[in-house]
Structures are given as structure tokens and as C-alpha cells.
Amino acid sequence: MLLELKDINKTYNNGQPLHVLKGINLSIDKGEFVSIMGASGSGKSTLLNILGILDNYDTGEYYIDGRLIKGLTEKQAADYRNRMIGFIFQSFNLIGFKTAVENVELPLFYQGVNRHRRHELAMQYLDRLGLADWAGHYPNEMSGGQKQRVAIARALITGPKILLADEPTGALDSKTSEEVMQLLGQLNQEEHVTIIVVTHESGVANCTNKIIHIKDGVIGRIEDNRAHQASTFGTSTIMK
Amino acid sequence: MRDVFTEIWESVRRNKLRTSLTGFAVSWGIFMLIVLLGAGNGLQNSFFQGGDRFASNTMQVGGGRTSKPYDGLSEGRRIILDEKDVTLTDGSTFSDHIDQVIATVSTSGTASYGKKSVSVDIEGNYPERQQMEKIELVAGRYVNQKDIQQNRKVIILPQNTAESLLPDNTPATELIGKHIRVGTLSYLVVGITKSDRMRGNNMATAPFTTIKNIYGKGNEIEDITFTFHGLNSQAENTEFEDQYRAAVNLRHRAAPDDRRALWIWNRFTQNLQMNTVSSILEVALWIIGLFTLLGGIVGVSNIMLITVKERTHEFGIRKAIGASPWDITKLILAESVTITAIFGYIGMFLGMVVCQILDKTVGQASMSVMDEKIAMLVNPTVGLDVAIEATVVLIIAGTLAGLFPARKASRVRPIEALRAE
Lengths: 240, 421
Hints:
The complex is a heterodimer. Chain A has 7 helices and 10 strands. Chain A is of the alpha/beta class. In chain A, a hairpin with a 1-residue loop joins strand 1 and strand 2. Chain B is of the alpha+beta class. Chain B folds into 2 domains: 2-51 and 271-419, no CATH class; 58-267, no CATH class. Chain B has helices spanning 2-14, 16-51, 83-90, 128-132, 145-149, 159-165, 208-215, 234-251, 267-310, 312-320, 325-360, 384-410; strands at 58-63, 98-113, 116-125, 137-140, 154-158, 179-182, 185-193, 204-207, 223-228, 262-266, 366-369, 372-375. In chain B, the strands form 2 sheets. In chain B, strands 1, 2, 3, 4, 5, 6, 7, 8, 9 and 10 form a 10-stranded mixed sheet that branches. The chains are: A alpha/beta, B alpha+beta. The A-B interface holds A 45, 48-49, 52, 54-55, 74-75, 78-79, 81-83, 87, 89-91, 93-98, 106-107, 109-111, 115, 154, 158, 166, 170-171 and B 2-3, 10-11, 14, 313-314, 317-327, 413-415, 417-418, 420-421.
């Protein structure tokens, strides 16, 4: 198993204690394309933060590729995030004063890769996503779809074990959403990238091969969706 | 390294006005520091300009008036030193500290050359005096041993006295080798000294023995000058002076602790006091300068805090994709140090330019006091040492300014990045 969560519990203590994750058990294998679905407040964001080593959990065990992720220092956590996880965010989270190629280079900068090598690799990834001509442009000169593709290039450049996508289509129109989901599907199929998409849109979840439903901090149903028939709206396009 | 500067440049470029306003405060601080220190140096240099011409370990002693009754004699009595005081000074009593002892006698009269005449004070001196007081000769020579042995009637004139004996626009050196008259006697001019009325020795000089034999009253002398060693602190000097005063006073039947009966001018302690004053001045200037600079530093710190606030989301993104807290700290510290250093250097450069301008203007001007030109500021500039110290101060200042904002930035949680704006 690539990812393994054993009885993960998480409570927020802001005034009134809030038990957000109530014993999550979950395994995700290498090369899987899964979505985690749930309404807001279901705990899916918290789960994503834990999966992405952005937040700690209280009890339980979380393994990535057999390595226990617990009690890390900030520096270690940063290093693990950098090498093992690629993030794709709803609002793209590109750095506005950096060009597309500079944004893609950034994870390698924190690995201490030299400038030329960094640039070369970043250009390769942009080219693969069809954005080579846009390398010198700033994010505010690009469309939402282009921005998300830059973000995907940035997430892929370190060759991460998992790609974590948090509502990757949340800021996109339905046509672009579909393109982005197709791109993710392609990456999964052709390059066997393990992808976890967190969403509340059933259409988006329908594009993945496995749908994990989370509700009130516990895992509910796990649907096999290789036929992509889960959503009645998902058969033709992603409904917005 | 290049990456760090690229990042800084990007950040600065986005906030040009803000950065330059903050930078101005730093520039101003270091500018003030440099100008203050430069002016302070100028002031000190003008203090010491006279002082360092004397051998610093000499004391001069002269008779005064008693200020209290003693041994049946009333106060207000004049004390006149004589040759026995010289013997006492030179003798075994004080041989632990006193090295060379010389005495002077003096007289006054009217010197004339051709049709011109001028009144002069003549001091009878020993050759050693030239060394002790670092008397500077414009031309010719000072009193020598043969003058003393043979009671030669030779005279060394100060430049201005020599000039007033000659027709207008004739250099004073013309007078060397000529005979002038003083009273009824004829003296051969052998040397010309720099005139310096401020130091009170604008006197003509003749051999001690000549003056004593012609004008002297018995064994009376004017004053005693001696060099000493082994007295290194104010306290040691005061103790020695008290002992010495007591010995001389008792010879003249004056109270041993009567400070007015015998005046002692100790150049060593005077320099010591001047050094203390000047180091206090320097410390004060540094403090004022540093406090001015502090204003700039607070400004930088403030700006960096705002920057950190604005860039919270960005730092979150950076952390999410793998920046460690130290990476973020480094970014802010480097920016703070760079801003401080660049603007500090501009300020330092301008400060040095102003110091040079001061040197060329006020530094050349002088006040006239008692016919003597006194420069107000002598070389009011700062040296390489101050430039290096200021650089160190700037780097420390930049680091301090960035420290708090950088800590704040490094604590940004990467989850921030996931929050939609």
C-alpha cells in the first residue's frame, strides 16, 4: 500500500472541542485515481491536510510508502511535502510575481537544484502540458485552465508519490473542468501517477476510478467507479 | 545567492515607494552618524593640534603667592624660585621619577634693528628645552652648549618679532646672522622660531647663562621644567605633585599644602583629561548617531512586518511546496539586510561627501584669537575604521530589523495556502 491510515483521530480545540476525524481507516494503492467526497464540514479538508502533511493528527498512524508520518519537525515535514506530494489547489496558488516557468521551478529551488537544470526541467513539464509558449507569462495573463495546468506542472516536477488535488475544478467553468479532469485521468492512466481528488462535486468524483464518501468524520461507502457511472449528471459532462 | 537576490529584487520592485521611504530613514541615520563623527573628529583634532607638540611627560613649575599663613608668616607673600629649588628637583629626593631638569630666567627690553624697534620678552634657556617643548625652528638654530659655556650674546627670535624689525615684506630669515640691539647690548640673531602666542611662549630665547649673568638677581629663576617617568595615572601624578609641592613650599616657608604658593603645570595629566573628554565626546556622538539610526531600523522592521502580512498567503504556498521555516526566515532577513545595507551605504557615502565639504570649507576657516589663527575643525573626516564599524553596525541593524518579521513569517502555517482568498 502506498498510503495507509490507521484509526486517525483529529480534534480541534478552538473554544469548544470539535472532533473532526473519528477514526479514519483508509488504504490507497500505487497508481489509484480516487476521489474523496463529502459535504462541507464532513472533515474532508482536514483529511486532505493530514494526507498532505500540512497538519498533524492526534492519534492513529499514517504511512506513506511504509514510512510513518508522525511527530515530524517543520523542516522534515517541508522536505517530505517537497519530495513526496504534489499539490493542486482550487485557487491555483501560483505566485503572482513569478512567471509560469518560475512557478514550476520553485519546488526544485527548495531541493537545491541548480538554476539551469531547474529551468530545463520546468520547460519540459510546461511543454508536456502544452504551455511552452506561455512560460514567460505571469499568472494574471493566463486563463483559469492555463493557470491550473501550470499548477499541475509545478505539482509534477518533483516526481511525487501522490498528487493531492483540493477541489481542482472549483474555480473553473464546466468545459475547462472537464479538460482538467481528463488531464488528471490521462496522467493516471499513462504515467501511473497516484491521484487523490477532494471534491464535493459528484461530476468531478465521477471522473475518478474510486469514490470514497466521508461523512461526519468517518469513512462511509467506498464505490468502485471504473465504469464512471456513479453520477447521473456525469455521463456527458461535469455539471456546474 | 543569485536566487536570493532575484527574490529580493522582485519584492522591492513591487514596493518601490515604500522601500525608498524606509531606505531614506536608514540613509539619514547613518548619514547623521558619519557627519557627527566626522565633525567630532574635527573638533578633537583641533583640540590636540597644540597639545601633541609638547613632550607629554613634562611638568613646569613656577612661584606664586601664598594663600595661607604659615610658620609665622602671613598670606599673600610672593614665592620666588631659586637655584636651590633646581638642586632639590634634580636631587635624590625625586630621582625615582624626575629625569631632566632645566630652569629659565627672563627679562624684557626693547629690541631694535636699523630704524625699527619692538619690545621683547627674552627667556634664558638651556638647549634641552627645544626637545622638551618641541620648539619648531623656521630657520637657523636653537641655543647650544657652547652658547651656555661662553655666555654668548646670541638670540633666537619668533617669526613675527623678526618681521616687525625688518622692512615690510622682507622674510624673517633675512635677520639671521645680523646683530640687533636689546637695550644697550648687541645680540647676534642665530635662529627664527614659529610664532605662537596662544602657547604663551612667543618669547625671544637666549642662553640661560647670558641672561642670568646680565640681568639676573642673585640665584632667582623664573621657572623649572622637568621631564618625568613612571607616573601613569591621575592618582599617581597627584600624589607626586603633592609631595613635590610640599618639599618646595617648605623650603620657602609656605604651607606644604598651599596650592597657590607653587603652581604646577602637568602636561601629562592635562593630556589625560583631554583624552577623557574626547573619548566621552566620541561615545556621546556614537550614541546620538546610533539612536538616529535606530529610527531607521524601526522603520525597516515595520515595513518588513507589513510585507510579511501581505505575503502570508505566498509563504503558505511556498511552505506547502517544500520551503522550510529557515528558507522563509532567510528570505526576510536577506531582504532586510540588503535594504539596510544598500541605503546605509548611500547614507554613508553622502555623509563622507559632506565631511569632505566641511573639510574644504569650515575646516579651512579659522577664528582669530589673540592674533593667533585657530582652526575650528581640523580634518573633520572619518577614517576607514569608522566606515568598517558602520558597515558592521548596518549589518547588525538589518538583521535586528528583520529578525522579528522573519520569525513571524517562518511561523506561517502551510494550511494558509489552502484557504481560498
